[in-house]
Amino acid sequence: MTTTTETAVTSSKNSSKPKQEAGSGGGPVWDWAAGHGPVTGALSATTGAFAVATTGAATGMPPGWALAVGAAGAIGHTAAGIRLSNAGRTVAARAASWLVGAGWTTWAMTNGPLTWQALGSLAVIGVATATVTRSTDLYEEAREEEALAAEERAVALELSQERRAIAEEWIDRIRRVCGVSVRVLAVERWPTGTGFTIDAELPGATTYDQIAVRAAALSADAHLPHGCTATAGPGVHQGRTLIDVATVNALETETPYPSDYAPLSLHTGIPWGYRSNAEQILTYLREQCALVVGPTGSGKTNMVHVILAGFARAVDVLTFVIDLNAGSAGLSWVLPALGHQPAPGERPMRPGIDWLAGTVEEAHLMLDAVLRIGKQRKISYQALMAREDTDLLPVGPSIPQIMLVVDEGAEILTSTDKTLKELAKKILEVIRMLRAMGVRTVLTALGSTGSVLGNLMIRREAKVRVALTGGEKEGMDLSKLFPGTRGLKVDQAPYKGAGFMGTPESPAALFKCWRILPSQIREIVAATSERHPALDDVSAKAAGETYARRWDADRIDWMHSPQPTPLTPADGGAGGEPRRGLNLSALRDQPAPPPTPEQEAGSDVDRLADAFMREIDEHFGTTTEPDHAQPQPERERERPQRPGLNLSALRDDHGTTPEPGTTAGRDGGPDWLAGAIAAIAEAGPAGMKPSAVADRVNRSRQGVRDALKAAAERGELVYRDNGPHSVYVHPDHA
After folding, report:
1. What residues make up the domain containing 194?
2. pTM for this model (two decimals)
3. Most exposed among 33, 66, 90, 201, judged by the fewest C-beta atoms under 10 Å?
């Protein structure tokens, strides 16, 4: 009796329809854990009451028991309804259903449940119970929805009052500071809680620039924290403006690179950092190049690694890196793969970048290959572009875009060095010719100066621009990097990794780059190893063996070298080690007589340099250069008695000063000549200039010329006369 009556009065939104189990083939099954609706609940209650009444009448059960159980159920549900804050009609309906069910059961046990009168009354009770239950359920749902709506209205009213206060405050501030009377249409709080955006309508022919130029004054008038600004930008049309007001300095704290290394695509944007409202900035580089400037210590290297991380996560990008500073920008993305030892059955790990050039020679090979790829793509993919009805190569995982990242590339483009000029010419050709064929560049520079931005190609193609200031003001002319944008001041971003960023989709404004750690770089290399696309067959064939053998042992041997290549051993080094330290005159050859007519035919530059060095030695030298032509007095040769440094360079093996003109080297030349000849042999057919040899062995240029000339007369070297570019070549390469 208790179970059936409770089932009748306790309804739920869940249905008692049979539920087909997934994967079973035996037909529908009942979900006994599901609740009852008004109909099934009433049916279950009436059948239960009929069963209890029939059993009680047959067994002689006292009728008062059913009435007592019904009264207890009514009291319990009344207390539960009050605790749940149910409506009065709901509490009354549930208590009444218990009492009516218990009353019918008691009457049926007394008079017999198998009469038409008993059965008819039970049916009426069931229908009434279902109707009342459904009615109370709908009423409770309506009450709940109304309560939620009232709560939302209260919150909206509170927010509306706050927004109205903000609007009135900023209307007055803009009028006082900028002399512009605006009408605020909306105020939107940022989800991050770090500020808000004001949507304002401008009066008459006023433009948002009149507010943007007073950004610093508005920020000061609002007493915003350091690093927070009030920046005006374009609105939905030219008669409206959006004013972003940052109230919390989100750029002050260091934020690690997101640990979610999910796949990215060039077409959906690659994140490079976040704004002051903590929103990510996406870059779209299918047609745009990028320029990143930042002085030393501003976080530029970290920014390069963040850029490479985004490219490594992309499924349609291959990254080529040129870094003439020993390849430092790309080594972190290559070494984890080179040092990986795959387990049996495991695929080798692929580097995070597809090609790394750390020397000028390798950079030339890379750029030549990229130019061949671009030109071959123009020919081979004409049918594909015609089928897709586009003049841009459809870039994707099967035909990946090549992103050429050149660290300090802007300096290469503006360099006056002859070697770098050839490299710059090829980089500019890549930028100019290969946009449609899916080859774009990311260049970095040390500052936004006129020499860097003087190239029209850089300004025209690099629409994605980043200025990492780090508080540095020298060489950071933001008006040149972001022309037409006002109100940008370097002191707004004094933090490492912070600065300004502008894209065609997002105007220049404050931003900060994530901090990426070497451990994260290793994690990204491992996580994205299987994600990198392969170069399409057309491009791979055009690149040729230069690209196919880019990871050959002889091409990447420098990446494994733990120590720099040692210098040629100089005299006095124990065990063949090169002498390092002060460049003392005691360690250099003594001055020689004036140059001979043959030597006069050498380089004009070297001759002027020698004259300059002789002039310095004569007037500013700190050690006395003895004259070979005249004998020195005995008292001048007694070095131990002369006050000053007791240098080992001034002593022979027995601690005494060597006689002028004596050598401990091979016959026919000074002792350093063997190392110089070895260095010339290593230089190959190109040979070495006398000035380069002098720098190598730490000797005077005149003394080196005399020794090399004598060696050439003995047949140990070959002199190749080429005017200013005259060199000495080893006979094996002559």
Report:
1. 179-246
2. 0.58
3. 33
